[in-house]
């Protein structure tokens, strides 16, 4: 490598880490201009040579869809993936971003969408992140529209990550929560989703103490698995119309669990982060007893360190009734929260009709989840 080019890139690295982005940009532009001129002089065909294949392991790439033109230094990574970036002060306001990307890990590749909120000039604090897992037949754009999570994330200043299940992995686009190889730490889809989350955390200014996971139906079941298997990553979990970890071991037992015939509390395994559960008592797809089973498993995971439950009755702005049961921890804060939605079916409560499986008449599950999440930073 040309020594002048290397020196300029090293200088850009130093300036970026110190927060002087304008000077870093100028250094990179000089280096790129130098490299482009020298490469053209040395090899007139160099511009036509395809880039070398990426090495095996975790690979992440993203295409920005709705965003102003990124600065020239945006394509460069100046730290190793495992290194934690220090907060960088934003010199100028940054608009919100809605990006498409792909991530490879362990022989599988996932597409995803990532929402980043606008940043004001002078901001430096890392932001929370919510991993959102869609239900069967859904996709990230559909799920984002139905839950309206991006609207709330914009207002509250947090990032939202939506991975997409492949139809090669499941014909209906479901997360494979009912297969033993996808219920374990370090294997299958839990390992893939945990690695994707950590990759996004390393690429953006994410607060590692405020990373959460939520899902609907099959996504809710997988969210519960992730929270149990990776409590060092996820500070709290939201399960909407889902099932508890260990409720099934194959397709037949999954169908039985969904009907409610197998919705018993699974054996307690390891630490369970705080959990908030939403389930309609008229859900004909996943019986509401599964929501109660998620709650009971979470209570068992807290080793009885809970006060007596607090039960309230209420209704949404559109009149849909609910029963809310809160299980406070020893410090009085809600550690487990259960919303039983009366008359509600298999749909995200308080959602938008612009997405599938969303019930606009229900209580706002997205807002309530974020309220619960942000009250629970990871220790």
UniProtKB/TrEMBL annotation:
Gene3D superfamilies: alpha/beta hydrolase. InterPro entries: AB_hydrolase_fold, Esterase_phb, Plant_Biomass_Hydrol_Est. Keywords: Hydrolase, Signal. Transmembrane segments: none annotated. PANTHER family: BLL1128 PROTEIN (PTHR43037:SF1), UNNAMED PRODUCT-RELATED (PTHR43037). This is PHB depolymerase family esterase. It comes from Variovorax humicola.
